[in-house]
Amino acid sequence: MSRHVVQLQPQSGVQEAGQWSTGLCECYKDIGDCCFALCCLPVFTCKVTRAVGACPCLPLLDCIGCVPPASLAMRASVRERYGIQGSVCSDCLYGCCCYPLSWLQISRELKRRAASHASSSTSSSTARYTALTSLQGAHLV
């Protein structure tokens, strides 16, 4: 019996739990969504919120206070769903100071995780990703 030692583990296209798959300022990785958000950010945020599974009108609450509650809630929800490190303070900072970039990062994360799940045939968590698989290869329009 021979023993075969694996020296390199296979890597997936999406970062493992603990990190966002793209950085906050990596909008160039999805030009279509970037242009959509630039032209009509309120509609874009509603589409992303619907993709997360929340009420699509939730982002409309962001205009009533100095801290955007929908942005904060969506970042926290996506971080919790995928085990991404962060805190409410960082979510608040990104929501207040980098509002459009934060929503674009959430959109990219949803698409990449859905595409990663679609390419792997793990049936144990199928229900968790069902709502997100329709985003594969599509813009949130």
Strand content: under 5%
> What does the overall shape look like?
globular
Low-confidence stretches: 8-14, 123-141
Q: How many helix segments?
A: 6
Rg result: 17 Å
- Fraction of residues in helix: 40-55%
Give me the secondary-structure category.
mainly alpha
- Main sheet overview: none
Distance between the termini: 56 Å
Overall residue-averaged pLDDT value:
80
Q: Helix and strand succession?
A: HHHHHH
Multimeric state: single chain
- Report the count of strand segments: 0
Key features of this structure:
disordered C terminus, 50% helix, 141 residues, mainly alpha
Write up what this structure looks like.
The protein has 141 residues and is mainly alpha-helical. The protein is built from six helices and no strands. The chain has helices at 31-39, 41-52, 69-82, 88-97, 99-119, 126-129. The chain is globular. 29% of the residues are buried. The longest helix has 21 residues, at 99-119.
Question: What's the helix and strand layout?
Answer:
Layout: H1 31-39, H2 41-52, H3 69-82, H4 88-97, H5 99-119, H6 126-129
Helix pairs in contact: 1-2, 2-5, 3-4, 3-5, 4-5
Offer a concise description of the structure.
This protein is an all-alpha fold and 141 residues long.
